[in-house]
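Researcher: Sit down with what I've pasted below and flag anything odd:
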Amino acid sequence: MVKRIVAALLILLAQAPSASADPRPFMRGSWQSLLQAHAGRPLVVHFWSLTCAPCLAELPQWRDTVKGGGMDFVLVSTDPPEDNAKVERTLKRAGLDKTESWSFADSFVEKLRFEIDRTWRGELPMTMLVSASGERDARTGTVSRQDIESWLAHAR
């Protein structure tokens, strides 16, 4: 009974809107919840990690790109839950502390990656561009502001 209550609370927390860097738990089913919550609008979901140097260098650039508007933006840390305090501090330093943020919360990360993109093997950074109509474009490596603006022109 207690396990069911805890599971129900985790699901509710994962689905509740968040406007802070306190990462919500990203577990099985979170990807579909995230897509449903942002359906009908262009969405950029950026997967990153504290151990990924290009990811850390790119975070402040995302702050500037997001200011341009016209899209929803979500960050997903692939770091384990015990690193959430470091994730929060890193996002705050990058000026992204008010951005919707999630963090992998399932030790079976291969299953999480498979739900997001069946061909994704964990390379970072990875950015999933989802158009208003739901078309997806996964890009690994850093993504420039110009890349996002070009995609956004066709994603609405």
Remarks:
- DSSP finds six helices and six strands in the chain.
- Helices lie at 2-15, 30-37, 53-67, 84-93, 109-116, 145-155.
- Residues 2-21 have pLDDT under 50 and may be disordered.
